[in-house]
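Repro:
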Amino acid sequence: MLITFKCHACADVMMLDNLAQHLLGIIGKRLGQRGVITPEELGPAIGKLEAAITLDKRERAEHDGHFHEGEDGHEHHEIPPGLAQRAYPFLDMLRAAQKENSDIVWGL
């Protein structure tokens, strides 16, 4: 199912519900039928999401150090997109909403 986040400060952001649930969980919110992120919640939400992205990048870099591409006995496998890639549109929306002092809503 697609979840659409809306904000007066920028274009809508749509994502699958499992990603929306994950990102909202990082910032301390729950995915319900309807929800809102208020301007007062935006600063802490941005900080939590940026910290999670930094941690994910560090863990991925450590994994890349153990990557055996092209070695005998190791088959090619694709590395899935990281949190930074998947969260960027939502993080951009959080920043735009903070700049404009706007709510972010979903389920309306």
